Structure formats: C-alpha cells, structure tokens
UniProtKB/TrEMBL annotation:
<keyword id="KW-1133">Transmembrane helix</keyword>
<dbReference type="Pfam" id="PF22570">
    <property type="entry name" value="LiaF-TM"/>
</dbReference>
<keyword id="KW-0812">Transmembrane</keyword>
<dbReference type="InterPro" id="IPR054331">
    <property type="entry name" value="LiaF_TM"/>
</dbReference>
<feature type="transmembrane region" description="Helical">
    <location>
        <begin position="51"/>
        <end position="67"/>
    </location>
</feature>
<keyword id="KW-0472">Membrane</keyword>
<feature type="domain" description="LiaF transmembrane">
    <location>
        <begin position="10"/>
        <end position="96"/>
    </location>
</feature>
<protein>
    <recommendedName>
        <fullName>LiaF transmembrane domain-containing protein</fullName>
    </recommendedName>
</protein>
<feature type="transmembrane region" description="Helical">
    <location>
        <begin position="12"/>
        <end position="39"/>
    </location>
</feature>
<feature type="transmembrane region" description="Helical">
    <location>
        <begin position="73"/>
        <end position="92"/>
    </location>
</feature>
Amino acid sequence: MNGKTIMKTVLVIAGVYLVLKLLGITLGAVMSFLFPVLLIGIGWIGLKNKHSLIGVSLIVIGALLLIGKLSGLLVILGIVGLIVWGVSLLLSGKRRAT
C-alpha cells in the first residue's frame, strides 16, 4: 500500500467511527457483536482446513456468545411466533366451524 491508500483508509475508518459515535453506537458495542461472529468465521475456516476440533470449538463458543447477545431479540421473535401461531389456529378453527 502506498501513502495515499493508507490515508484514504484512515479517513474512511475515522468517518465511520464518527458516524457511529454520533448515532450513540460505541465501538465497544460493535465489537461485542463482531467478536462472536469473528469466532464463528475462524471456526468455519478451521473446519474447511480439516481442523475439526478447533473449528467446532470456536463455532460453539461464538454461537453461545452470540446467543447471549441476541437473547432479547430471540425472545421477541419467539413471542411473535406464538402470537402468529395462535391467530392461525383461531382462524383455521373458524373456517372448520362454518
């Protein structure tokens, strides 16, 4: 890389950081989601390179960390799923009764 490419990259990174900070998203919050995804990605690469124990271990650890971070979203999706299921049962019961 030459000096101009490095300068352009630094400006882009600084701009993204400032926009995230303006939106109230700190780098720590971004990294807390990025780290488990990175572990899963490295584990996938390990599986493709025939290192199954390391690959599976990293994928499991990354998935557990990611589930912990996304637990609130998973609960909301579960609740919405139950509501949709209940409404579909109610509507299918009315069609059979008539």
